[in-house]
Design goal:
With about 200 residues, the chain is of the alpha+beta class. It has 2 helices and 11 strands. The chain folds into 2 domains: about 30 residues; about 160 residues, no CATH class. Helix content is about 20%, strand content about 40%. The strands form 2 sheets. Strands 1-4-5-6-7-8-9-10-11 form a 9-stranded antiparallel sheet.
Length: about 200
């Protein structure tokens, strides 16, 4: 009788152990969650039809480090730049945001450096650049659509390696493709080199 009871008790502990291991494995899989920053570009999209303020100055690029874009089409080409308070990433916090209006290509760029929320619930920090196409752009992209890109460290916001991470978005700000990315300043675009769903 004692052997039967100890066998049953051992079997119960073994099953509980398997359940704990199984649950732990599931927790690890779900904790990694989706990758990248959680960016809602609505505030930038809304500004694509607004002309630069009279106080704007001139520049040929926007951004910092890997998130820098040159908008200079020739030696004499400059574009309007200014700073304003804007919720650049849609997290509810207003940031000091650098804006550049590329009048030839009809693209509004917004750049800020700071903290942002990750899709997996964590927090990251670094450079964030958003581009939104205005009506009548020569690339004939839908007005309001565009892309954003952030410079991430390895492990930040679920990134597998350090580098640029970005998403393309439609005219309503909905993401259409995301992943490891490369800026294509010549074509006012972002190339997703490794798509992550």
């Amino acid at each position: 009788m004692r052997n039967k009871i100890s066998g049953v008790v051992f079997g119960m502990f073994a099953m509980v152990g398997l359940c704990v291991v199984s649950t732990a494995g599931q927790g690890q899989a779900s904790s990694s969650g989706p990758s990248g920053p959680a960016v809602k570009p609505g505030a930038v999209i809304a500004k694509t039809g607004t002309p630069p303020p009279a106080s704007a100055t001139k520049a040929t690029s926007i951004g910092n480090g890997k998130t820098t874009v040159s908008t200079q089409n020739n030696a004499a080409d400059t574009d309007s730049v200014w700073v304003e308070k804007l919720d650049i990433d849609g997290d509810g916090d207003v940031d000091d945001t650098n804006l550049l209006w590329d009048d030839e290509d009809k693209v509004l760029y917004a750049f800020a450096s700071g903290s942002f929320t990750c899709k997996n619930g964590g927090t990251g920090s670094g450079n964030l650049l958003i581009a939104a196409y205005a009506a009548g752009n020569p690339k004939m992209r839908p007005a309001g659509s565009g892309f954003w890109v952030a410079d991430l460290d390895a492990g930040e916001c679920g990134a597998q390696a350090a580098g640029l991470w970005g998403c393309k978005f439609d005219a309503k700000g909905n993401e259409t493709a995301c992943g490891a990315a490369v800026l294509d300043a010549k074509n006012d675009d972002l190339t997703i080199v490794k798509v992550v769903k």
